[in-house]
Amino acid sequence: MAGVVEPYAVGAASQGVERRIKLNAGQSEDRPNPVRVERLDQEVGAGGRSIECHRTIVSSSGSRQVTLGFVDAQGPLAGIRVLDVATLFAGPMAATLLADFGADVVKVEHPSGDPLRTHGHSRDGHGLWWKVLGRNKWTVTIDLSTPEGQELVRGLAEGADVVVENFRPGVLERWGLGYDRLSAGNPGLVMLRTTGFGQSGPYASRRGFGTLAESMSGFAALTGEPDGPPTLPPFGLADGIAGISGACAVMLALYHRDARGGGGQVIDLSLIEPILAVVGAQPTVFDQLGIVMPRTGNRSPNTAPRNTYLTRDGRWVAVSASATPVAARVMRLVGRPDVVDEPWFASSVERARHDELDEAVACWIAARDLDEVTREFEAAGAAIAPVQDARQVLEDPQYRALESFVTLDDEDLGPLRIQNVLFRMLVTPGRVRFAGRRLGQDTRRILAERLGVSDERLSELAAKGVA
């Protein structure tokens, strides 16, 4: 049951944070430890780049201190503790985004490893997807299906602010790791439950992946050429949208808990819903007008000109003219100023019905090289961008100016370029500190520091395949 969190009291010298959690009215009187006082002591490390956190839990049964390790002092989420027991993309991505901004994230994997480690390309046996998405996380191996593993996870969850999981509904409950069990000793816990179809409904027990969400949401039906099949993206689009949504949901839950005096809660995040929001007004268009939007390739049924076009030197560019003034500039540039004065031109939907606009832009661009096309569009105040592959993205001067990629000195691969954090916060910036770590690299340290597990016991667990 949720508790009430009083405002933080920050000590000047120790930078300690004290939080008192009281029971809500109506909570059972016979529950153990009805009042808990937690103290989070933070000691600034060398250079001010990190802080060492110790959490002391005081209750009617005594007190104990848990060392949380070093976290990023400059990140806005420094001191927030996340236990990531999810696999593959959506849930882990949410945890990664939290880690990018200072959260202390422990990634729990089965001793055989997260499937992401062998997903896609690898170099020297090290999965590159894992290096990217596993960044900024401590790696621990625990078999959640074993009683001993479940005990370890319950211990880690007691010291966590957030648990991220993506098992099918009921699996964690069967293992004694459901929210009711984990929050019994940690009423401020936030649990992000990421599944294909949500925690309820006729599809809840089905296995779900992002591909199915891209199919069910209407995205695939809208994507592709008019005479071609529905088209799926070649990467985890639905997972990515859900991962970003999940990180946002966690922050809302933490704000409710810490700023509004609320307790913990469960977040029910399905893969099929965030992407449904991104496809826009298509369901409402059908609801109100009975129109099912067809596939239109790279053209838009809502505005024109909008398409990809091939230059004389073999480069593709994308043009968008959603705003009427921009569309007018494009048509004047390509030699068709006459259409700008037509009555229908002021309506973006009407423009989309006139093929001559697209044809004129295509012909003008086809007669010129990329540099000239880009220069002329920019001079005219029109919107254009090249279609770039990964090599060209890494060389792009705008991405370089924004520092959209960071080069890490990876312990396995040496210099490694990966995407930087999603956005720049000028006062409390995020940071990519390291790429995905080796399987179980931090198991012994984390279990010893946070749960007090002895070396002898750790060896026993390793021999049993539990950790």
Distance between the termini: 30 Å
Give the CATH superfamily of the largest domain: Crotonobetainyl-coa:carnitine coa-transferase, domain 1
Our Rg estimate from Cα atoms comes to: 26 Å
What structural class do helix, strand and pairing data support? alpha/beta
CATH architecture of the largest domain: 3-Layer(aba) Sandwich
Strand content: 15-25%
**Which sheet architecture does the biggest sheet show?**
6 strands, antiparallel
**What is the third-level CATH name, the topology of the largest domain?**
Rossmann fold
How would you summarize what this structure contains?
The chain has 467 residues and is an alpha/beta fold. It has two domains: 3-278 and 421-464, 3-Layer(aba) Sandwich (Rossmann fold); 306-310 and 316-386, no CATH class. Helix content is 33%, strand content 22%.
Question: What features would you describe in this structure?
Answer:
This protein has 467 residues and is an alpha/beta fold. It folds into 2 domains: 3-278 and 421-464, Rossmann fold (3-Layer(aba) Sandwich); 306-310 and 316-386, no CATH class. Helix content is 33%, strand content 22%. The protein has 18 helices and 19 strands. The protein has helices spanning 90-100, 128-133, 147-158, 171-174, 179-184, 210-216, 219-222, 237-258, 274-278, 282-289, 324-333, 348-352, 355-366, 370-380, 390-395, 397-402, 443-451, 455-464, and strands at residues 3-5, 9-10, 17-23, 36-44, 50-59, 62-72, 81-84, 104-109, 122-123, 126-127, 137-141, 162-165, 190-195, 265-270, 306-310, 316-320, 383-386, 405-410, 414-419. Strands 1, 2, 3, 4, 5 and 6 form a 6-stranded antiparallel beta sheet that branches. It has a 6-stranded parallel beta sheet with strand order 11-8-7-12-13-14, sandwiched between helices. Strand 18 (405-410) and strand 19 (414-419) form a beta hairpin. The longest helix has 22 residues, at 237-258. The chain is elongated.
